[in-house]
Design brief:
Putative nucleotidyltransferase; alpha+beta; about 325 residues; transferase; RlaP; transferase activity; 2 domains
């Protein structure tokens, strides 16, 4: 992997980094991410490159704007510093993990990137309980939905979808304006449609609720149903690898989240759990065994959530002070 680290920026495919005005000399941090960052890569795994760039003065003071750059051909994403910090404050797992990659996976880091990396604990708070929990729940949903689609009769499938939506609704109060319990009621009853006997119905009784929040809530519920229905046309053999990858990331997220809650440390490369994660990815566990593992690591995550000494919210004033100092030193 050292060879990748040293030579990747010299490859023709990555010349865009030097040629783009928003990148080039403005980049403060580049690191390998994805499966290589986790230590779960296979021989044919893609190289995921992630980074941070300090926005040019034209972006900060002028009419131009810059939040992030993406190159889909090389799977490269480089965030503007302000966008990166904003997402890190929210406890975004995909962002926080970039500050905890192995030293040997860092492609480039100058003094500004080093300061940001050394202060990564400033971004940690109890928000991680919800962000890592939500990401893990999404992975679990994909796994459970696929199995349910293959094995359950229609009535049981409806129950499964309803349970998934109800679980997701438990997180709505942390993401959207809170509504009174019972305002949105979901239940299964007899269907008027000829092709099915029962289906999920809903009763809504809610006043003066922000429209945009309601649209987002409905979108989340709709996505669950849509993702589930897509599985009707899936190729089981082709998607088996994807399901196992979901299972692996589910376990990884729970382990990593638990560790952050307990130790306040971000360790992206999972050396201790490497064999476990790779065995999951290679299909060495049955789905029954996988769900038992999920129960174990989910219990550990919830226990750590109760006992954690992380602050409820990050100290935004302190982070803002750090952000301003980076900009001032860089521009001057």
């Amino acid at each position: 992997m050292n060879k990748v680290t040293k030579e990747i920026l010299n490859k023709e495919d990555y010349k865009f980094i030097d040629l783009n005005n928003n990148l080039g000399k403005n980049i403060i941090y580049l690191t390998l991410s994805g499966s290589i960052g986790y230590g779960t890569n296979l021989d044919n795994s893609d190289i995921d490159l992630r980074g941070i760039t300090i926005e040019r003065k034209e972006n900060m003071y002028g009419f131009q704007s810059f939040e992030q750059f993406e190159d889909t051909e090389t799977d490269t994403v480089i965030y503007g510093l302000k966008k990166f910090v904003s997402l890190a404050l929210k406890g975004n797992p995909n962002i926080l993990e970039l500050l905890g990659t192995k030293d040997e996976h860092i492609i480039y880091m100058n003094k500004y990137g080093e300061v940001l990396r050394k202060n990564r604990e400033l971004f940690l708070s109890k928000r991680i309980i919800y962000t890592f929990g939500n990401y893990a729940t999404a992975q679990l949903r994909r796994l459970q939905n696929a199995l349910a689609r293959d094995e359950y009769p229609q009535e049981e499938k409806e129950k499964h979808i309803l349970n998934t939506i109800n679980n997701q609704m438990n997180h709505f109060s942390s993401n959207y304006t809170e509504f009174q319990k019972g305002s949105i009621k979901l239940y299964i009853d007899k269907s008027d449609k000829q092709e099915i006997e029962t289906e999920i119905l809903m009763d809504i009784n809610i006043d003066k609720y922000p429209l945009r929040d309601f649209i987002s809530i409905y979108s989340e519920m709709s996505n669950i149903v849509r993702d589930y229905d897509k599985l009707n046309h899936r190729n089981r053999k082709k998607d088996e690898g994807k399901l196992l990858k979901h299972a692996m990331h589910l376990i990884r997220l729970l382990i990593m989240g638990t560790e952050i809650l307990k130790t306040h440390e971000i360790n992206t490369y999972r050396e201790k759990e490497h064999d476990l994660l790779m065995d999951i990815r290679k299909g060495k566990y049955s789905y029954d065994e996988l769900f038992k593992l999920v129960e174990l690591y989910d219990f550990n995550f919830k226990e750590a959530s109760v006992k954690t000494t992380l602050p409820k919210e990050p100290d935004q004033a302190q982070v803002e002070e750090l952000l301003i100092s980076l900009y001032e030193e860089y521009y001057n």
